[in-house]
Amino acid sequence: MTLKECKKEEKADREFQKKFKFEGSINVLTQMMVDPAATEKRGGGKNLPLRRGEILDVIQFTNQEQILCRNSQRRYGYVPRAAMLHL
């Protein structure tokens, strides 16, 4: 990883912590897959765009309806629990 890529990731992580009021280090709890039968949704606001079959890193189980996740492009957002499957 180059220095430029490392600084870009650090900046994205700081923006995530500010936007979601997340304190502490960012740890991946588990990985989950978006249900292949789920409808694809565009992201917006604090929601993460959904693509069928995509594997997401789970950062935090926020409540009974949503999970805070990170996708492969290092974007963060909320995903409905109903659209997720355990690996």
Automatic annotation (TrEMBL):
It comes from the Eukaryota. The keyword S-adenosyl-L-methionine does not apply. GO terms for cellular component: plasma membrane. GO terms for biological process: integrin-mediated signaling pathway; protein localization to plasma membrane; T cell receptor signaling pathway. Keywords: Phosphoprotein. The keyword Phosphoprotein applies. Residues 16-85 form the Helically-extended SH3 domain. Pfam families: hSH3. PANTHER family: PML-RARA-REGULATED ADAPTER MOLECULE 1, SH2 CONTAINING ADAPTOR PRAM-1 RELATED. This is PML-RARA-regulated adapter molecule 1. It comes from Podiceps cristatus (Great crested grebe).
